[in-house]
Amino acid sequence: MFNHSLSLVVFKKEILESIRDKRVILGVIISPLLVTPLLIGTILFFAGKKEMEKRQAVVDIGIVEQQPFPELSDWLDENETIDTSHFATREEASQAIQDRTIRAAVVISQGAQEQYRDNGSAALEILFNASNENSLNALGRTRDLLRQFDKFALKKRIQAVSLPESFASPTDIETTNLATSKSTGSLVLGMILPYFIVISAAFGGIQTAFDLCAGEKERGTMETLVVSPASRDEIVRGKLLTILLISLIASFCAITGILAPLAFGLELFKDIVGDQISFDFLSVFWMLLLVIPLALFTSSLLLVISSFARNQKEAQTYILPFISIVILPAILSSVIGAESSLYTAFVPVLNISVTMKQIFGNLFEPLYFAISLSTSLLYAFFAMRLATALFQREQILFRT
Hints:
This protein has two domains: 4-34 and 180-397, no CATH class; 58-168, abc type-2 transporter like fold. The protein is built from 18 helices and four strands. The chain is mainly alpha-helical. Strands 2-1-3-4 form a four-stranded mixed beta sheet, sandwiched between helices.
């Protein structure tokens, strides 16, 4: 018979030692609540600012007329969004792009004007440098301008033959978005939030896990703990509860660190996820429920690694397989849609991430949720049994 009170004694001892570690407080509480939202906001702010600068910047474009084509060249010269420079040869324009005096160039081929006036397609070439970001931006801008010229020229051709403008548009398409800004915001939120929750649940307790077993071996205190009245199973249970609690706190802080700014309506986040930020507390509750088996599974794996390692440095070398087990499914979940096949509910970590996306996307499937929850608990149970088995082996527990 197990004495659960002894497991709680081990748990209290380990949790007190963990919260005294400033690295745990920094990584589990301060970072998710303050650093992560600030980091995300800063990245999105500067990314948006840079994109806006790209759109508003006046781009230097070259024009090479191997044969005069005033209809196009004059139209480009008059455009206020670009600065045009004329070159005599293609080689001169190419060199100017390499020298970064211009960012792209339009080469008008021989016979282009005749092809245009005969209602054909004028042969054009765009020169750019794919290794230069500004040149790639100029390529996109030039393509847009030429598409605008195509529309302008097509309109003139239609007017010349006295045809209605609808001649060039056999269909008239109107799109109606049935999604509200509220549901659109939830969709975007469902794409980013599961990833951060999975990472927090998996790595929030890593420092604590490595200190509880590998650290005790390194400090020579494992022997003292083993000869205490608590059995090996009770010791494992107490240590696992400690790692689980730290991982859950990290997950809850990550959720709070992202949802709190949305709840308070920060303009930066409102611009990202829609005009109306909305998430109901029932969805948050189901998401928190899903975090528990996920954190239990990852905590058990961390305890296995820490139990097997001789010291904390060796434990860190074993972390790569653990990262692969967690990171790859988390990244894959951002690619896989919420309406995934049922077999994905059996894939560890991925099933939890996809279920979270379903919850935020108003696509809740009871069968998928039940399978994800039960299989995650099953995987956690097997990982716990493995950690307990390692603790029973002297040659593993007292490796130095």
